[in-house]
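Troubleshooting: if your tokenizer reports a length mismatch, compare your output against this known-good record of 109 residues.
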Amino acid sequence: MPWGNPSTFRKKTYQLDLGTMGYEPVWQLQREIVAAKIGRPLPDMLIVVEHQPVYTVGRGKSRTSNSFDEDCIRSKRAQIFCVERGGDVTWHGPGQLVCYPIFYLKDQN
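Known-good structure output:
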């Protein structure tokens, strides 16, 4: 098999399919799962969700930038969240499946 011997797979990953939800409760859920995993042997988790219209602003982008028109975004009935991830501005919305892996990588080969 190209991915190795399945008998060597040791960890289970649980998938949580949330359907369609706003960004904020999913963001909070991610933070709660990460906090719960710290120091505890909890299973890895893959959150699958379709968001209502939202723009997330990573640490690599300034909200005062000329290319970031907050009024225009809000006129489209989209929310805006500044988040702790790196990167620029990302749109999520209907029709887009978003996956958030929450994996403990330290013991991965």
